[in-house]
């Protein structure tokens, strides 16, 4: 490429059959089933998958009857596994009475834990996400969909994609350097043919979509075969793909996982709110990049602090950004749950391919319904 980049930044994503993502999908399937019957369910579901054993644990208090073993098979069977491939164990307990007392307050909700959450947005892509991250995520989304449709002969579902992008001095992406894909496949698959098909059917159309160069290097299973995948090949656990769930190394993460957690768990809900605020501010051209930090105390109805970082790209005074946020946002947990429809949301649709795009389902926290209001307030300041 004829550019002199300041840096090359790399992000990764994982596919629907990755062992950690299988665990996330099972946990969110259990959560969704609980809330569909009892919207006041309290769920903190964790899943561990190793070799041919899957353990579903955590704390759940609900009026619903949910067959968690069936929830697991609803994830596994479409990926090609058979019922004799795994033993599945249920080790679910009830939520701690002490946590319950702090969360379930009269006419309002309290945060289920202390913690710090981040939300990030950048104007470098239409999704307001970093280029290498959304490129890698969409690549696997399309590869997995082609695999479901049997249009990639020999491909299977355990997969990872890593994209390295050039950034200039203004922290704007100017091209793609390389794409690395690790793809599970059948024993007799033609990897060279698979590589060419993926480049033609997936990667080059993405390059056109994001208006970047097409001469990047592509590496598919460069250093060996990948026949044994999923939990049989590598251990899976909920909450181990935090950067894949969010912004792919460029935006920060507070450390709390999302999947398997109900709306009182601010690791999830607070991160959704922070992303919503950041995305709407960037879409309103308050700044080119924004990161929002929120912090909660257990049992508190609202965050105890908020910090806004614009990376020196803001177009209005920083103090006015805080004023706009506080004027437009009701930070109470009760309001967030209502605003994002978190008692009825299908969480099983957002446990893979990231929580901050609309690839699999339209997410209320991804809506840009504050942009016009922000622009009006900007003119007043």
UniProtKB/TrEMBL annotation:
It comes from the Bacteria. Residues 109-226 form the S-adenosylmethionine synthetase central domain. It is an enzyme of class 2 (transferase). The keyword Signal does not apply. InterPro entries: ADOMET_SYNTHASE_CS, S-AdoMet_synt_C, S-AdoMet_synt_central, S-AdoMet_synt_N, S-AdoMet_synthetase, S-AdoMet_synthetase_sfam. PROSITE patterns: ADOMET_SYNTHASE_2 (PS00377). GO terms for biological process: one-carbon metabolic process; S-adenosylmethionine biosynthetic process. GO terms for molecular function: ATP binding; metal ion binding; methionine adenosyltransferase activity. Pfam families: S-AdoMet_synt_C, S-AdoMet_synt_M, S-AdoMet_synt_N. Its EC number is 2.5.1.6. Pathway: Amino-acid biosynthesis; S-adenosyl-L-methionine biosynthesis; S-adenosyl-L-methionine from L-methionine: step 1/1. The keyword Nucleotide-binding applies. Keywords: ATP-binding, Magnesium, Metal-binding, Nucleotide-binding, One-carbon metabolism, Potassium, Transferase. Residues 228-366 form the S-adenosylmethionine synthetase C-terminal domain. Its cofactor is K(+); Mg(2+). Residues 8-96 form the S-adenosylmethionine synthetase N-terminal domain. Belongs to the AdoMet synthase family. PANTHER family: S-ADENOSYLMETHIONINE SYNTHETASE (PTHR11964). This is Methionine adenosyltransferase. It comes from Candidatus Malacoplasma girerdii.
């Amino acid at each position: 490429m004829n550019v002199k980049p300041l840096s090359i930044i790399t992000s990764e994503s994982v596919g629907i059959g990755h062992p950690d993502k299988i665990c996330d999908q099972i946990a969110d399937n259990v959560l969704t089933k609980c809330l569909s019957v009892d919207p006041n369910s309290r769920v903190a579901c964790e899943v561990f998958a190793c070799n041919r054993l899957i353990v579903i644990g955590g704390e759940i208090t609900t009026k619903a009857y949910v067959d968690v073993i069936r929830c697991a098979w609803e994830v596994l069977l479409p990926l090609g596994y058979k019922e004799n491939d795994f033993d599945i164990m249920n080790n679910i307990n009830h939520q701690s009475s002490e946590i319950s007392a702090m969360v379930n307050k009269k006419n309002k909700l309290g945060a289920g834990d202390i913690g710090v959450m981040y939300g990030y947005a950048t104007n470098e892509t239409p999704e307001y996400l970093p280029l290498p991250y959304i490129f890698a995520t969409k690549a696997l989304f399309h590869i997995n969909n082609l695999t479901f449709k049997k249009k990639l002969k020999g491909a299977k579902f355990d997969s990872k994609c890593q994209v390295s992008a050039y950034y200039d001095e203004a922290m704007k992406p100017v091209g793609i350097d390389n794409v690395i894909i690790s793809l599970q496949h059948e024993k007799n698959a033609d990897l060279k043919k698979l590589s060419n098909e993926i480049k033609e059917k997936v990667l080059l159309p993405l390059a056109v979509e994001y208006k970047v160069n097409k001469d990047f290097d592509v590496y598919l299973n460069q250093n060996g075969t990948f026949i044994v995948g999923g939990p049989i090949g590598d251990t899976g656990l909920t909450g181990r793909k935090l950067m894949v769930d969010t912004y792919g190394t460029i935006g920060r993460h507070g450390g709390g996982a999302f999947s398997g957690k109900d709306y009182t768990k601010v690791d999830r809900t607070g991160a959704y709110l922070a992303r919503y605020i950041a995305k709407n501010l960037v879409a309103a051209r308050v700044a080119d990049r924004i990161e929002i930090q929120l912090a909660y105390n257990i049992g508190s109805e609202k965050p105890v602090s908020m910090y806004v970082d614009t990376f020196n790209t803001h177009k209005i005074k920083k103090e006015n950004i805080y004023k706009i946020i506080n004027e437009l946002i009701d930070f109470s947990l009760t309001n967030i749950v209502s605003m994002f429809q978190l008692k009825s949301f299908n969480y099983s649709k957002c446990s893979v391919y990231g929580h901050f795009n609309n690839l699999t389902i339209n997410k209320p926290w991804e809506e840009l319904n504050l942009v016009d209001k922000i622009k009006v307030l900007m003119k007043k300041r």
